[in-house]
Automatic annotation (TrEMBL):
It comes from the Bacteria. NAD(+) binds at residues 180-187, 203, 272. This is Dihydrolipoyl dehydrogenase. Residues 3-327 form the FAD/NAD(P)-binding domain. FAD binds at residues 50, 143-145, 312, 318-321. GO terms for biological process: 2-oxoglutarate metabolic process. Binds 1 FAD per subunit. Residues 346-455 form the Pyridine nucleotide-disulphide oxidoreductase dimerisation domain.
Amino acid sequence: MSYDLVVIGTGPGGYVAAIRAAQLGLKTAVVEKRKTHGGTCLNVGCIPSKALLHASEMFEEANHTFPALGISVGKPKLDLKQMMVHKQETVDANVNGVAFLLKKNKIDAFHGTASIPAAGKVEVKAEDGSTQVLETKNIVIATGSESAPLPGVTIDEKIVVTSTGALELGSVPKELLVVGAGVIGLEIGSVWSRLGAKVTVVEFLDRILPGTDDEIAKQFQRILQKQGFEFHLGSKVTKVETGKKGTVVTVEPSAGGEAKTLSADIVLVAIGRRPNTDGLGLEGAGVATERGRVTIDDHFRTNVPGIYAIGDVVRGPMLAHKAEDEGVAVAEIIAGKAGHVNYDAIPGIIYTAPEVATIGKTEEELKAAGIAYKIGKFPFTANGRARAIRHTDGFVKVLADAATDRVLGCHIIGPHAGDLIAEVTVLMEFGGSSEDLARTCHAHPTLSEAVKEAAMAVEKRQIHM
């Protein structure tokens, strides 16, 4: 078996790289350890979590919003089994779609565990123990990431779970304790909170959502607390003891101090993710790594000629769409074209209710870099469409260079923030200014008008506030 390119891993980065390479005329193969394609994202991460986030939000709407809209359906009854069916149908449709795309683009797919004995060779060990070696001119490592473990805590995916187990619970826990106030913990916590769980979050730092604009994070915490979340910030989990009646979690101040205990039916460990490189044989192949991540240059090349890496195994945010863009870029580079990713214009979304969306620099980053900037903000309470749909929490915040007016960042908390951030992403990709955005006609009444008004507010000329 001889190829121009073999991609290890068929998550968003891997399968996109393979498809783009095939489009460019490269003879391409992929190796996937799961029985289905799509990686963590499609199988046990992004896609199933969004299916449950949507379903639980509809349950919440039926419970609390429908009566105010003049819709009387009585108290909704949760059918968790059917909700899980919806989740699985969503997953199946997506992973089957990827399999179809690989076949359509004439990409050979091998299922098994991959390793790299040397440059130009990928060994595939199938589930039955048989092995075969694929000869290839180029290799792309796109093996993604896995949940980071909490030292001293054993994961059983039943009582003490990662995101994988938390999306498979057979009943709604009375009390869910989430370790980590990052994106994954808050999203999954939101699912079970809406369905009836009491959610407690323990975070090592003194704030939620590390790295997010501080004003956004503070507003978001207040909203989640109104929804019933309880936060223990500046705290660390030192012990989790499981018994027949659930778990007892020992929590101490991060800076040291007296310990206390919290009880829970389920404990979700969501303290981050780590690169998935075990078993690849990187050390034997001479591929350099740093703190678990594969070291690459600006063209995704490792130190070994012919071996590249993208996605969660390399530097940068662990986001599916970042991996996809890198997949396109690395395929184009291998094919002799000029692949490129603009890391200053990669949005990040938290799919809670309200959603949180960010792109570019935060205020804290601009201050640290000594960059003079202007701020434009606009609340959803002043947006007609937000009032009509009864979702007025949050605001849009635009940060622009004080001298050039170039937009350096945008941060949104509010309804459909994940969709609204897209126009700012395009604007930033083209180096646009707040005035460019402010002078662009936006349809009325739409939520996008809040983005326009925030851009107008940079020069203090918003109309509706």
